Amino acid sequence: MKNWMLTIGVFFLTLGTIQSQSVIGKWKTIDDETGEAKSVVEIYEKSGKIYGKVVEILRANHKNDVCAKCEGSEKNKPILGMVIINGLKKDGDEYNGGSILDPTTGKKYKCYITLESADKLKLRGYVGVAIMGRTQYWTRAKN
Fold first, then answer.
1. Tens digit of each residue's pLDDT (9 = 90 or more) over 29-81
2. 80: number of Cβ within 10 Å
3. Top-level CATH class of 23-140?
4. Residue 139 belongs to what H/E stretch?
């Protein structure tokens, strides 16, 4: 009986560790200039690809912002609820082949994401080649 309980305990501990080492979850976006948290993006998997949606805006004066500079169907849509990471596919330790939208500028970039640690996500947005881009680090949001 003790061995069975130990086995169950190890299983749930391992499951928790595996989940915490995934890009799936809620992440705080950090402003490059001020270093303050701007929003929470939920990264999720759908049909084998990775997407990210803005689920919370942390700065009170921006809660009702719309994507005024966006083009197409995203133009003037609320940023809250907007899908900003689209169609990334797992490729080894990174996810790539999709895009990221900067709702502040309305620009879309190619991107890739990698898990730096259980609570730190590296995002690289770029035009053309990855060398010509910008890197951000997001931190896992605590529940």
1. 998 888 899 999 999 999 999 999 999 999 999 999 999 999 999 999 999 99
2. 17
3. mainly beta
4. strand 133-140
Q: What letter represents residue 4's amino acid?
A: W
DSSP string, 38-82: EEEEEEEEETTEEEEEEEEE-SGGGTT-B-TT--GGGTT-BSTT-
Q: Encode pLDDT of 112-121 as tens digits.
A: 999 999 999 9
**Per-domain residue ranges of the chain:** 23-140
| 0.85 surpassed by pTM | no
Compute the chain's Rg from CA coordinates. 17
Cα separations (Å) of 116 from 10, 60, 70, 96? Answer: 25, 29, 30, 15
